[in-house]
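step=predict obj=protein-glutamate O-methyltransferase n=273
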Amino acid sequence: MSSDGFADVAGVVRRRSGIVLTDDKAYLLETRLGPVLQKFGLASIGALGAKLRQRPDEQLERAVVEALTTHESSFFRDGKPFEHLAKLLPRMLAPGRTGPLRIWSAACSTGQEPYSIAMLVADALAGRPGPKVEILATDISGDVIGRAKQGVYTQFEVQRGLPIRSLVKYFKQDGAKWRINPDLAAMVRFEERNLLTDLSSLGKFDAIFCRNVLIYFDAPTKTRVLDSLAKRLNPDGVLYLGGAETVLGLTDRLVPVSGERGAYSVAEQRAAA
Ligand SMILES: C[S@@+](CC[C@H](N)C(=O)[O-])C[C@H]1O[C@@H](n2cnc3c(N)ncnc32)[C@H](O)[C@@H]1O
């Protein structure tokens, strides 16, 4: 494999998504870019690199980023953030509330995260009428957004983290797969969205899940994304990050929620500003 090809591919992925492909990820190119090479009639990674260098090609660049993003996810992944949200929901859904409850899954992959949130909300409401709830789920990848919208999961996927009680309550068996119930699916709105772009049009949220995506970014990009997420939080809102992610040393706009691993709130002086 030509090292030029790697540098060109990594450059495109970093510019478009923020994801840093270090040299030890070179093996990913070989395994994941095969279908892209075939689709665009390119003989090698070196040829792909040369084409990317020649002139901007939106379709090709998109395909390269799609192929090289990691979409690993599971229902109620890591447990803790969902337990914390479940504790907050009775207050968030209290009858006196004015305005909708808004929750954002900001790198939602194939949908397990936003659907887990929707199950918690449905459980908390337990059929009683409540305030309007908006769950927005976004990801840079059009492919995973398409899959997430279908709400269809394999036996393996539902076995990872989904309690059997929730499987029975919120899914129907469809051949060898499981399909999420339409009522629950209707609670989530999916949209393709890049975290590196201006997010102000999304409005403010009571809770944001942005988990297991910052790990792929360099420090300046993490800071940029965290600052931009902080601006999307209501003053008493909560940001949930992945187990290997933190705000510490990256921004002073967010502070850890005491005693809750992975949960952050807007720093007071910033909330007031
Ligand atoms: C490993 S998955 C995490 C999914 C889920 N949040 C979880 O924790 O299970 C990371 C997701 O981040 C998305 N992603 C990567 N770069 C992104 C960006 N710049 N903007 C939005 N999403 C991005 C990928 O497409 C992928 O679906």
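step=describe
The chain has 13 helices and ten strands.
step=end
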